[in-house]
Design a protein that fits this description.
Length: 254
Amino acid sequence: MSTDIKGKACLIVGASSGIGAAVALRFGELGARLVIHCNGNRDGADAVAETIRAKGGEVSVRQGDVADPEFSAGLVDDAASTLGGLDILINNAGSMFGRTAIAEATDEQYHRVLDVNIGGVFFASRRAAALMRAQKSGTIINTTSIAARTGGGDGAGLYGSAKAFVSTITRVLAKELAPFGVRVNAVAPGVIATPFHERYSTKAQLDASVRGIPMGRLGTAEECVGAYEFLASARMSGYITGQVIEVNGGQLMP
């Protein structure tokens, strides 16, 4: 068990289901003091929080749209106030908002994909960067995607492009914040069996993905958690910053 996560103040943005929920549950087990965020799925976030509390963990739930700059900044400030500081920020909120070729993408799709996947990371990270720079400690972990390197599957080009921004701003923040003792890294999941793919991928698309995965199956949310735990732990990754950890069953080997 990573004892240096115990007692840490941690905000997880996008933790009502899938990878974010699995990370929240694990960090709760490790003794982190949590604020978890949701947007539309309040019931899911509440269920995650109830499970954490039932095991003796400390957690609060906040709800809102991270595409809103004021909400995102306020969420970071609220978490820091609630927890008495902020040691770990995990930016996990994101969505595809449907599959479409670039030629058929609407202005609404363009803005929504970029506002959530880019804006959500940018606005929360901007505020957290200021707080962590002042306290001269902390770590930020962003969730990017295999699509950031491959361009994504059919109709996922906007999403993949937005996630490429997340990978790049991870490196930018790592350089800017390293002098202040703050580490910034990212996790890039491959094709993971979560509600995300239940919404946006057909069985045929998932079957095609599996054929390209050397391990021969989709991943699970729980199999992504270790990468976040590793990056959150100064004991395990204290000399690691600006990196993207690929969790994809061998589908991509950069």
